[in-house]
């Protein structure tokens, strides 16, 4: 985004991340790094979010914030509904109050549940099967209701599978705190010697060798997609 000319304000509670990544982003952006600022804020903290919006007039918001571990969502559903849904409602209310009505929401392909066939298309029925997926689906419904109630809102929902990878420089990539919840960090940690081996679970899937198959999208392609969505918000036809 910085290299595309956008002034960018990051809001993150650093629950599963580090500000080191932002420092490296600034370094990689070179002279454009000066257009990046950071606020360590939880979306559920209304007063803090209000302060961020009072300090800067925003044209649009890209909403990535949320807990995303499927297994944890099953054992801690209230935490996920509180963090993901309540946080989003707070964000939307503050955006409304400050006249910012352009949103790109990072949803998930989990809203399709267990599709009857693959690849999925946008028209597939929605039927999330775990608390994490349901929070994404509920937020989508909230966004649709908001758009139906106020035509000034422009909202793009992006549903994608399993982002993986790193910046070509290798200076920024996925590096979660504690035990990873996704496959690729395990692979990377084995490659650099932080773990001894990679454990493969399951051998009775309907695949050639019985092991699981997943679809992935590279984070750089995904970043390009979000920038394209952001530009699309300026289209008067949506």
Automatic annotation (TrEMBL):
Names of required cofactors: NAD(+)
Example GO molecular function: UDP-glucose 4-epimerase activity
Pfam families with a match to the protein in the record: Epimerase
EC annotation from Swiss-Prot or TrEMBL: 5.1.3.2
Residues forming coiled coils: none
Any one cellular-component term (Gene Ontology): cytosol
Catalytic activity: UDP-alpha-D-glucose = UDP-alpha-D-galactose
GO biological process: galactose metabolic process
Similarity comment: family membership: Belongs to the NAD(P)-dependent epimerase/dehydratase family.
PANTHER family, per the entry: UDP-GLUCOSE 4-EPIMERASE (PTHR43725:SF47)
InterPro entries: Epimerase_deHydtase, NAD(P)-bd_dom_sf, UDP_G4E
Keyword presence, Isomerase: yes
Ranges of residues in domain NAD-dependent epimerase/dehydratase: 4-233
Keywords: Carbohydrate metabolism, Galactose metabolism, Isomerase, NAD
Pathway connected to this protein: Carbohydrate metabolism; galactose metabolism
Protein's UniProt name: UDP-glucose 4-epimerase
